[in-house]
């Protein structure tokens, strides 16, 4: 099973369970993978390409967490931390 297929299955399960943070995070990851695929004329992504997309997404979440900590935005900090945990599960 490819990462895209696994993300899609988990996305559907999250929608059924009503887990909003997981749905939003998985939707974002699916879109980023599709965008990466489009940038190179619809080529098939290798597992290394998929991991690079996930690593980049995790890096962005870590940067956002640091920014929200400095700004004292605990509401956004919790959301980003949860999203990072979801992304890390796929890494």
How would you portray this structure in words?
- There is one protein chain.
- The chain is globular and about 40 Å long.
- The protein has about 90 residues and is mostly helical.
- The two termini are about 15 Å apart.
- The model has no long low-confidence stretch (mean pLDDT about 90).
- Helix content is about 85%, strand content about 0%.
List keywords for this structure.
single chain, mainly alpha, 4 helices, 91 residues
Brief summary:
This protein has 91 residues and is mostly helical. The chain has helices at residues 3-17, 20-39, 47-71, 74-90.
Low-confidence stretches: none
Q: How many separate helices?
A: 4
Radius of gyration: 14 Å
The percent of residues in helical segments reads: over 70%
The N- and C-terminal alpha carbons lie at a distance of 15 Å
Structural class determined from secondary elements: mainly alpha
So what's the overall shape?
Answer: globular
- Describe the biggest sheet? none
Strand percentage lies at under 5%
Order of helices and strands: HHHH
Number of strands: 0
Mean pLDDT: 91
């Amino acid at each position: 099973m490819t990462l895209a297929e696994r993300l899609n299955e988990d996305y559907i399960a999250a929608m059924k369970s009503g887990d909003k943070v997981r749905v939003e995070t998985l939707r974002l990851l699916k879109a980023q993978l599709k965008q990466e695929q489009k940038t190179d004329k619809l080529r098939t992504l290798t597992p290394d390409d998929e991991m690079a997309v996930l690593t980049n997404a995790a890096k962005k979440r870590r940067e956002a967490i640091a920014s929200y900590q400095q700004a004292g935005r605990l509401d956004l900090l919790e959301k980003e931390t949860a999203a990072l945990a979801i992304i890390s599960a796929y890494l």
